[in-house]
Structure formats: structure tokens, C-alpha cells
């Protein structure tokens, strides 16, 4: 999988079929296989009973149809000799005077295994037990088929050099304990389902939710091939609802109710699945005493084709922390509620009626103030008990200064202005620092002076200092140790910079009156800056954070993929090129990725002692919860891999 970065390209097909016409069906199957192979597919699954058709009904008792099914299987096997693709087809198969509904796995001219359908529906429009036997009645673990000795049963896991997979058939998914639940606990990473599920009102949405949930529950890829319109007969209609899911997300679907052969293709990120399973200690057979005796046979599959020019067809989300437009309102409402709820609990626990926050006119302090206002409203405490302190320094511009004042006025909090200039100049004298030298001492002295003011003023009013720093700044260590790094409760520590901007815009649109909205819009339009260096002659901000540390949209992308999935730098680089191909050259992406890793490893000591703050998403850097890392851990091997990419 080295060339494919942990991705496996799979397909789910709904071919044109004719009931009981094996020749026609086989030709359509082979056409789809050929098309899929041109697209670099490693494995393709077809619907249940696709060789004969599922709705053949009592014709399944005709020996001629069963013989033709085997002849068709042999045709597919012969074609597969010249191919590397894994083909999974469905058919009826007679074994020892019993008929079974099976999925057959074929690769490189070999029939690798036969999996029998476990659960046979026998209700409403389904009559599987009229024709098929349960796999419990199998008396053989291997049979002869098409001149080969082939394993048969429900205990087969297939293993290629890239991934492991197992098979279940239609109804198996709809049961309380689908076979795939056990298959995945024993190592299957992708489940292929051969299905002939017909359509009724509402069934498609329910089916889709089953597939999505099962892929999430099993931390697996789920490739579902549904019978198409050709199966429609008498009283039932089929739509070809094939789809591919990965750990709860539907990645691809076919067009429903098509009269043509349809198949969907995408890549399943097996690397991601493995990392999730590694972290999730509940994903284990150890707690299932009834599974202790389960045994599987591992079927080795020839090495799948590696594409030296591998490219992704699936969409890579460039802003993984930001909710999509479809669920923006619900997600932002929930995130804001978590922040407000955490802060309100801290107020109640400390029996505190006042809070202090530094308001700079920037995004982070704006979000923190909005959270504080909402928490005070929730607890019926006067907003006047919020002390917003603006502390102009050497780099403060009129724009941010006025936005800070206007925002506090519009929200009705108590405003306090305390200039830090004289105090910092005196501090420079005390430590013998030349104030004309604009170095790290010049900058950090201002940040620490502001924190001292906030802490001492909080003591004066018997309140708590609320921190404003965000998750992206913590990841990069872009904060002054014991300066803005410190507070008594930090409401933004679970919110990355890209999400801060989205939240502030959402709050502006949904939570505030028009008087406050125009202020927030200007704040949103203001460049991100600590404003610790003097402004330009025109009064504009010269110290732009992203010029120094790099674009936050990139760093948030790096952070998410590193921590959420444990990806290697080379894979993150590959994904970033795909996600940002229209905005950044690959050399620039690599440059900032190196900056990210250097800063992430060198700045852990700051994260090791951060204040409490609400966890919001799956990524959090609290040393008490999600991220426990030695402060002196070396990043050498990560940087070495990046150096090798040049």
C-alpha cells in the first residue's frame, strides 16, 4: 500500500440483468468488471444471485439453471486470469443435495472462497427458505467447483497484501447481530455485501442508515451492491441502491432506478480504519465470552494491483473542523452550547458572579466574550458583571481598539481600558532591555503584562479570568508562556482557528441584533495578529500571524489528520496537495508542514500545563484527556520523512 497511501479503490455494481438469463447476466457482469478495472479498482462486488437473478423463484429448483450458473462462473473465472481485480458475484449453488445462496470470490483465475448467506428471510415478499438451506447444514468445509478445491462456509476472511475483507449477504445486515460485526472483530477491514433488497416507501433511507451505522460500529469500509431494475418482476421493484460507506460516512452511491448497468467507485482509507481500531479499546473480542470459540479460516489473495500514478477520486475535506452547510446551524449551535455549558458550570461550582476577559478586537477574544455573555444570560447574572478590559499597547491599531470598545458597548458589559505602554516601558528599564529592539522580549513582555493585569483585576473584583487562546495556537505553541497562555478557564481551547471564524459568523447571523452584527463583520475581516509590534505609518496592522507561522487553514488540516487518524507526514502531504491544489503549490504546503511538525513537537511543554477548558470535538490537546505527550518527545523521525519528500 506504499504507493496508495493506505487507500483501496473498490466498487459496488448494479448491472443490467434478465431473470434466469445467465448468459446475458454474465456478459453484463464482465462488461462492468472491464470498466471497473480501467478505473484501477482493486475489488468489485455484485448483487445477490446476480448470475441467475434473485427473483428466479421456483426456477431455482431447475437443474438446468443451476448448471448454467456454474458455467457462467467458469466464464468469469477464465476472464479473471488476465486481471488483478477481485470479483465477488452471487449465485445459487448446490452442495450435497442442498441449495445455498452464496457469494463467490474470484481473483487471478482462482475461486478463492464461497460464503453462504447466514440469515434467510421468510416474511412478507421474501421466501428464501422455500429454496435455500442454512449454512448450518453444510457438512463440508471445502468443495470442488470449476475444477478447483474451494473453501466454503461463513468463517472465511480474505487477506490481500493491502487489506482484509469478508462477505455477508443482504438480510445478514438487517439482523440484531450481523455476521459482519464478528468478521470485523476478527480482522476484516472491508465488508462486501451482495444484496437484493427491493424498494418500498422509506426503505432506501432506512437501508442507507443501516449501512452507515454498521460501517461505524465495525470501524470498517462497507461496500453494498444492490440488485437493479432488471430484477423487478410481478409485485416487487428493485432500484439498484448500491453504495460505499466508511466508518459512518457514505462515500459514493449509484443512480437509482436506472435501466443501465451502474457502479460506484471510491477509495476506502484502510490506514484510517486501522488507526481508529488501534485507539478504540472497546473494539475487541475480549468482552464477548460467546465469541471465544469462533474460528476463522484466512484465505490469502494475490497481491492487488498497485497504481504508480495513484490519484484519489474521493473528496478530501480541506476544512475538516468546519461543519458543512447542510448541518452548519445544528453543529454551531451544539458547539456554542458546549462552550457556554462548560463555563456556566464553572461559574456555579466556584459560586462566582464576575468574570474578567481581555478584549483585543480580534477573533478569539470576541468568541470568548460572546460565550461569557451567553453563559451569564443563561444563569440570569447581569452582563455588567463581565469586565471586558482592553489594553492598548505598542502595536494596537485604531481598527481593533475601536472594534473592541464597540463590541463591549453593544453587548452591555462593563468596559475597562488600561494601557500597558508605561508599565512595559518601566519593565524594559528594570530588565535593561532596549525598547527599540523589537525581539521576542519586546513582544512577550507585553503579553505577560496584560495577563498580570487580568489576573490582578480578577482578584480585585472577586472574579475569574477567562482565556481566549484557541486550539490552533496551542498546537503551534503560538502563545506566550505564562502570558496569554494562562487563565482560570479557557473557553476556546477546543476550537481551532478555522472554526472560530465560522462560529463568530454564525453567532453574528443567528444570535445578535443588527447593532452588533456590523462590528463582528469587521472583526471577521481583520487580519489575525497579536499586535505586539508597532503598526505601519498608515495605522494598518503589519504583524500578520499567518505570514510568520503559515496559513491556519493548512495547519488545521495538518492537525486534524495527524491527531484524528495518526497519519504519517507523507500521507498528510499527499492529502493536502489534493485538498489545496487550487490554492497552494506543493512546495509551499511542504514548507508549512515542516513548520507545523517542528512547532508541534517543540511546544508541548506549553500544552502540558494549560488551564481547564471544554472539550468540543474529537481533537483536543488537554494533557488531562485526549493528548498525553512527553514534553521532550523528539520529532526527528517525522521531520526525516518530510525531508525525504523534497
Automatic annotation (TrEMBL):
It is an enzyme of class 6 (ligase). Pfam families: CN_hydrolase, NAD_synthase. PROSITE patterns: CN_HYDROLASE (PS50263). Residues 8-270 form the CN hydrolase domain. CDD domains: GAT_Gln-NAD-synth, NAD_synthase. InterPro entries: C-N_Hydrolase, C-N_Hydrolase_sf, Gln-dep_NAD_synthase, NAD+_synth_C, NAD/GMP_synthase, NAD_synthase, Rossmann-like_a/b/a_fold. The active site is at residues 48, 117, 170. GO terms for molecular function: ATP binding; glutaminase activity; NAD+ synthase (glutamine-hydrolyzing) activity; NAD+ synthase activity. It comes from the Bacteria. ATP binds at residues 358-365, 468. Deamido-NAD(+) binds at residues 444, 473, 478-481, 606. It catalyses: deamido-NAD(+) + L-glutamine + ATP + H2O = L-glutamate + AMP + diphosphate + NAD(+) + H(+). Keywords: ATP-binding, Ligase, NAD, Nucleotide-binding. GO terms for cellular component: cytoplasm. L-glutamine binds at residues 123, 197, 203. One of its GO terms (biological process) is NAD+ biosynthetic process. Its EC number is 6.3.5.1. Pathway: Cofactor biosynthesis; NAD(+) biosynthesis; NAD(+) from deamido-NAD(+) (L-Gln route): step 1/1. Belongs to the NAD synthetase family. Catalyzes the ATP-dependent amidation of deamido-NAD to form NAD. Uses L-glutamine as a nitrogen source. PANTHER family: GLUTAMINE-DEPENDENT NAD(+) SYNTHETASE (PTHR23090:SF9), NH 3 /GLUTAMINE-DEPENDENT NAD + SYNTHETASE (PTHR23090). This is Glutamine-dependent NAD(+) synthetase. The gene is nadE.
Amino acid at each position: 500500500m506504499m504507493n496508495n497511501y493506505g487507500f483501496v479503490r473498490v466498487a459496488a455494481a448494479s448491472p443490467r440483468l434478465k431473470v434466469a438469463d445467465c448468459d446475458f447476466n454474465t456478459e453484463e457482469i464482465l462488461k462492468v468488471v472491464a470498466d471497473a478495472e480501467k478505473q484501477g479498482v482493486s475489488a468489485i462486488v455484485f448483487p445477490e444471485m446476480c448470475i441467475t437473478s434473485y427473483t428466479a423463484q421456483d426456477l431455482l429448483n431447475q437443474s438446468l439453471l443451476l448448471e448454467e450458473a456454474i458455467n457462467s462462473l467458469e466464464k468469469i473465472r477464465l476472464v479473471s486470469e488476465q486481471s488483478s481485480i477481485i470479483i465477488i458475484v452471487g449465485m445459487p449453488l448446490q452442495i450435497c443435495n442442498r441449495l445455498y445462496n452464496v457469494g463467490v470470490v474470484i481473483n487471478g483465475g482462482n475461486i478463492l472462497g464461497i460464503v453462504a448467506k447466514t440469515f434467510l428471510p421468510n416474511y412478507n415478499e421474501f421466501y428464501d427458505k422455500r429454496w435455500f438451506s442454512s449454512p448450518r447444514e453444510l457438512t463440508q468445509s471445502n468443495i470442488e467447483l470449476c475444477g478447483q478445491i474451494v473453501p466454503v462456509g461463513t468463517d472465511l476472511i480474505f487477506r490481500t497484501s493491502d487489506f482484509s475483507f469478508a462477505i455477508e449477504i443482504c438480510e445478514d445486515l438487517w439482523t440484531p447481530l450481523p455476521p459482519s460485526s464478528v468478521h470485523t472483530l476478527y480482522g476484516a477491514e472491508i465488508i462486501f455485501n451482495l444484496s437484493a433488497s427491493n424498494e418500498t416507501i422509506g426503505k432506501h433511507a432506512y437501508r442507507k442508515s443501516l449501512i452507515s451505522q454498521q460501517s461505524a460500529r465495525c470501524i470498517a469500509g462497507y461496500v453494498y451492491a444492490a440488485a437493479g431494475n432488471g430484477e423487478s418482476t410481478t409485485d416487487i421493484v428493485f432500484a439498484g441502491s448500491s453504495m460505499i460507506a466508511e466508518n459512518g460516512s457514505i462515500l459514493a452511491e449509484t443512480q437509482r432506478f436506472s435501466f443501465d448497468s451502474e457502479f460506484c467507485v471510491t477509495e476506502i482509507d484502510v490506514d484510517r480504519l486501522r488507526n481508529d481500531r488501534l485507539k478504540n479499546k472497546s473494539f475487541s473480542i475480549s468482552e464477548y465470552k460467546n465469541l471465544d470459540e469462533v474460528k476463522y479460516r484466512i484465505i490469502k489473495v494475490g497481491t492487488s494491483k498497485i497504481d504508480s500514478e495513484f490519484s484519489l477520486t474521493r473528496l478530501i475535506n480541506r476544512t475538516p473542523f468546519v461543519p458543512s452547510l447542510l448541518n452548519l446551524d445544528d453543529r454551531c449551535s451544539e458547539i456554542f452550547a458546549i462552550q457556554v455549558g462548560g463555563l456556566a458550570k464553572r461559574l456555579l461550582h466556584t459560586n462566582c458572579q464576575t468574570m474578567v476577559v481581555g478584549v483585543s478586537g480580534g477573533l478569539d477574544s470576541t468568541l470568548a466574550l460572546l460565550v461569557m455573555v451567553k453563559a451569564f444570560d443563561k444563569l440570569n447574572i447581569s452582563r455588567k458583571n463581565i469586565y471586558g478590559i482592553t489594553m492598548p499597547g505598542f502595536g494596537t491599531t485604531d481598527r481593533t481598539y475601536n472594534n473592541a470598545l464597540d463590541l463591549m458597548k453593544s453587548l452591555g458589559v462593563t468596559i475597562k481600558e488600561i494601557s500597558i505602554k508605561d508599565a512595559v516601558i518601566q519593565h524594559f528599564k528594570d530588565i535593561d532591555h532596549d525598547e527599540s529592539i523589537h525581539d521576542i522580549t519586546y513582544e512577550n513582555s507585553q503579553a505577560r503584562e496584560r495577563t498580570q493585569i487580568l489576573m490582578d483585576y480578577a482578584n480585585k473584583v472577586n472574579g475569574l479570568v477567562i482565556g481566549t487562546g484557541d486550539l490552533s495556537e496551542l498546537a503551534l505553541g503560538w502563545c506566550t508562556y505564562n502570558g496569554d497562555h494562562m487563565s482560570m478557564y479557557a473557553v476556546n481551547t477546543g476550537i481551532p482557528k478555522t472554526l472560530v471564524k465560522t462560529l463568530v459568523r454564525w453567532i453574528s447571523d443567528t444570535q445578535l441584533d443588527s447593532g452588533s452584527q456590523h462590528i463582528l463583520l469587521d472583526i471577521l475581516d481583520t487580519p489575525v495578529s497579536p499586535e505586539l509590534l508597532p503598526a505601519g505609518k498608515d495605522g494598518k496592522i503589519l504583524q500578520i500571524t499567518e505570514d510568520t507561522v503559515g496559513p491556519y487553514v493548512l495547519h488545521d488540516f495538518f492537525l486534524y489528520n495527524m491527531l484524528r487518524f495518526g497519519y504519517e507526514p507523507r500521507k498528510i502531504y499527499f492529502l493536502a496537495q489534493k485538498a489545496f491544489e487550487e490554492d497552494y503549490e506543493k512546495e509551499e504546503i511542504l514548507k508549512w508542514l515542516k513548520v507545523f511538525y517542528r512547532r508541534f513537537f517543540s511546544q508541548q511543554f506549553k500544552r502540558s500545563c494549560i488551564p481547564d477548558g471544554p472539550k468540543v470535538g474529537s481533537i483536543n490537546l488537554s494533557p488531562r484527556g485526549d493528548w498525553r505527550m512527553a514534553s521532550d518527545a523528539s520529532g526527528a523521525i517525522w521531520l526525516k520523512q518530510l525531508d525525504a519528500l523534497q
